[in-house]
């Protein structure tokens, strides 16, 4: 009896896991909803930049990343993850456009923009840090009241 119960449990767990994996695999890696689900104000900015791509705006999963810290909400955009037929519209030889916005009482404000290989927002004990990788070098910044200031190091948490 135990063997039958174990066998049925194994089938149940395996089929659920397969269904979960199939659901993730069935989700399109590039989709318009990665842009459509942004706050309206930011959606307009992204769509205006994407207009020069020559195709319908869509993006990969990590096109936008949000983080909270220093009592504020930040959102970064990674245009290398934007579907763009005309890559020159958002990328240069030094990397693709990356932008960071902060939410304030008046809405969202741009606080950082760079053409880079990658940018990463992190929270260092409540302090918001930004790492910007360009080629073999990484520049590190920390949020200081109204903008990002260069720092030597930020720990990622």
Rg, nearest Å: 20 Å
Tell me how many strands there are: 11
Amount of helix = 25-40%
End-to-end CA span:
48 Å
Name the shape in a single word: globular
Oligomer: single chain
Q: Bin the strand percentage.
A: 35-45%
Kindly list the characteristics that best describe this protein.
3 helices; disordered N terminus; alpha+beta; 157 residues; 5-stranded antiparallel sheet
Task: Please describe what this structure looks like.
There is one protein chain. The protein has 157 residues and is of the alpha+beta class. Helix content is 25%, strand content 42%. It is built from 3 helices and 11 strands, in the order αβααββββββββββ. Strands 3, 4, 5, 6 and 7 form a 5-stranded antiparallel beta sheet that branches. The chain has a 4-stranded antiparallel beta sheet with strand order 8-9-10-11, with no helix packed on it. The longest helix is centred in the N-terminal third of the chain and has 25 residues, at 2-26. It starts with a helix and ends in a 7-residue tail after the last strand. Residues 2-24 have low confidence and may be disordered.
List the helices and strands and how they pair.
Blueprint: H1 2-26, E1 30-31, H2 33-36, H3 40-50, E2 59-60, E3 64-69, E4 72-78, E5 91-92, E6 95-104, E7 107-116, E8 118-124, E9 127-134, E10 137-144, E11 147-150
Antiparallel strand pairs: 1-2, 3-4, 4-6, 5-6, 6-7, 8-9, 9-10, 10-11
């Amino acid at each position: 009896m135990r063997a039958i119960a174990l066998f049925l449990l194994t089938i149940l767990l395996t089929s659920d896991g397969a269904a979960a994996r199939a659901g993730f695999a069935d989700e399109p890696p590039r989709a318009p909803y990665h842009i459509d689900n942004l706050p309206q104000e930011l959606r307009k900015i992204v769509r205006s930049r994407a207009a020069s791509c020559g195709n319908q705006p869509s993006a990969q999963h990590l096109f936008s990343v949000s983080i909270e810290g220093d009592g504020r909400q930040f959102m970064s955009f990674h245009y290398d993850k934007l579907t763009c037929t005309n890559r020159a519209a958002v990328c240069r030889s030094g990397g693709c456009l990356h932008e960071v916005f902060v939410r304030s009482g008046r809405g969202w404000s741009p606080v950082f923009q760079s053409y880079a290989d990658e940018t990463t927002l992190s929270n260092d004990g409540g302090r918001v840090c930004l790492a910007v990788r360009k080629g073999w070098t990484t520049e590190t910044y920390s949020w200081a009241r109204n903008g990002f200031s260069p720092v030597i190091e930020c720990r990622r948490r």
